[in-house]
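Morning. Coffee machine broken again, so started the prediction first thing and wrote up yesterday's gels while waiting. Chain of 81 residues, entered below exactly as on the submission form.
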Amino acid sequence: MMQFIVNFFLLFFASDQQFDDWEGMDELEYSSSFMQLMASNDLILVVLGVSLLIWFTLLFFIVRLDRKVARLEQQTRDHDS
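Came back before lunch.
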């Protein structure tokens, strides 16, 4: 597994292919609406949007879990007294 990870990162970072040579740009008019959306915006903005969506989702679940745990702690305190 470790060898696979090392090979993946070496392949990814040692690649000399430029982002302007993205294969989806050649046949853009025949591609799906999702590919057209990604190509119309800068790809870094798409990556930023996806990462922000992931971070906000994680934040939402952590806050929700914290509220549930606080409610359970309050119930156990009330039950013990």
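The radius of gyration is 23 Å. Going to sketch it on the whiteboard this afternoon.
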